[in-house]
């Protein structure tokens, strides 16, 4: 039986290496350039029109995210050819990667689905996940879903991250209390 292990809020984000569109190795959770935090967006793949819409909408928030020090990367289990075909419908400038393995998906704690048909895709794929990793490499914000219809609303997410990143607010990582499972 497969157990979905969620990453712990406040825990160290696992540094997973993926392959970017241009063949470069990218490490999830490690921001690029002068930015201190990174938002990792796990999406289902080219077969998902809602993913296409979400990634294109995310592009419109890049300047605000960069303004608060948050880098963005997206990744799926698609192949390089599938990513290239998907790029014909994506209007994004942030890095995008392919080849997320089932082992990577399990490490991230995202839900994994079987394709409904060969027309959908030819491999198991991750359901949506969003992880915001802070300057210490710790998971600061997370959201995972078992279907494409539930994802963080981007304007609210960016506004919330601006609030969290404002040093005047002293906002801690939330959801860090973990207790042993109740046996009753």
Automatic annotation (TrEMBL):
Pfam families: AhpC-TSA (PF00578). This is Peroxiredoxin. Residues 7-163 form the Thioredoxin domain. It comes from the Bacteria. It comes from Ferrimonas marina. The lineage of its organism: Bacteria, Pseudomonadati, Pseudomonadota, Gammaproteobacteria, Alteromonadales. One of its GO terms (molecular function) is antioxidant activity.
């Amino acid at each position: 039986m497969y157990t979905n292990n969620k990453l712990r809020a406040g825990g160290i984000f696992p540094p997973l290496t993926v392959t970017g569109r241009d063949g470069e190795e990218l490490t999830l959770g490690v921001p690029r350039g002068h930015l201190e935090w990174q938002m990792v967006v796990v999406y289902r793949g080219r077969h998902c029109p809602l993913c296409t819409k979400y990634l294109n909408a995310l592009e419109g928030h890049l300047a605000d995210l960069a303004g608060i020090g948050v880098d963005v990367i997206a990744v799926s289990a698609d192949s390089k050819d599938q990513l290239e075909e998907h790029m014909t419908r994506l209007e994004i400038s942030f890095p995008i990667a392919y080849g997320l393995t089932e082992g990577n998906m399990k490490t991230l704690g995202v839900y994994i689905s079987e394709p409904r048909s060969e027309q959908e895709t030819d491999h198991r794929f991750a359901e949506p996940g969003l992880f915001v990793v802070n300057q210490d490499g710790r998971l600061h914000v997370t959201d995972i879903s078992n279907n494409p219809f539930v994802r963080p609303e981007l304007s609210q997410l960016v506004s919330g991250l601006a609030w969290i990143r404002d040093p005047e607010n002293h906002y801690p990582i939330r959801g860090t209390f973990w207790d042993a499972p109740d046996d009753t």
